[in-house]
Amino acid sequence: MQKLDIIYEDKDLLVVNKPSKLLTISDGKTTNTLYSMAKYYVKKQHKSNKIFIVHRLDKDTSGVVLFAKNELIKKYLQTNWHTITKRKYLAILEGKLPNKRGVIKQYLKENKFHQVYVSPKGEYAETKYAVINYKPNNTLVDIEIVTGRKNQIRVGFSSLGYPIIGDKKYGSTTNPLNRLGLHAYNLELTLNNKKYNFEAKIPKEFISSKKEA
């Protein structure tokens, strides 16, 4: 079994760096998931140990994922998630985004084919962004999500006409990294009056995008 890339661990939390192309939790068909790896890891320490999903990343997105080690912590984290966390991402977009910083405010809905789209009848989604640099055909952006809607970053930039590279589902026509150009690099958490700052190392292909611009 693939080895977990552990960022942080204590008696309540397990924080890992999820690789791209790995499901956070099973879709009913796939057995090798980030959750199954985390479960194997804690059970290896002691057979009575448990692990609980708190949030997810899309299969093709890499970066910080937090698990809870008991149900009480899991419920608290999920109930208060949007007030006790801040999440930041790096994305590589197709084309040159004209505005160097901005906020994408939309209402998003999901159809029966699991495609998320902009709809006045959807749920509110807010995404802040700032351009880090430009390459000839791409834009590297730093992103903070204010809400946590499914695919909100991917749909947000696609709707502006600058889809994330490798995101064929939402209009990308290029895939130079052979993966989705989206990485959840930072998660800030306030828990029991203590502040945590979890960082997932930036994939080497993203680093080259930062340096070569």
Structure description:
Helix content is 20%, strand content 37%. Strands 1, 2, 3, 4, 5, 6, 7, 8, 9, 10 and 11 form an eleven-stranded mixed sheet that branches. The model has no long low-confidence stretch (mean pLDDT 94). The protein has helices at 34-45, 71-84, 152-160, 204-211; strands at residues 6-9, 13-18, 52-53, 62-68, 85-94, 101-110, 116-118, 123-134, 138-145, 182-191, 194-199. A hairpin with a 3-residue loop joins strand 8 (123-134) and strand 9. The protein has 213 residues and is of the alpha+beta class. It is built from four helices and eleven strands; from the N terminus they run E-E-H-E-E-H-E-E-E-E-E-H-E-E-H. The termini are far apart. It has one domain (6-211): Pseudouridine synthase, CATH 3.30.2350.
Oligomer: single chain
Q: Predict the CATH topology.
A: Pseudouridine synthase
Q: Looking at this structure, what is the CATH superfamily?
A: Pseudouridine synthase
Top CATH class: Alpha Beta
Annotation keywords:
single chain; 213 residues; alpha+beta; Pseudouridine synthase; 11-stranded mixed β-sheet; 4 helices; globular
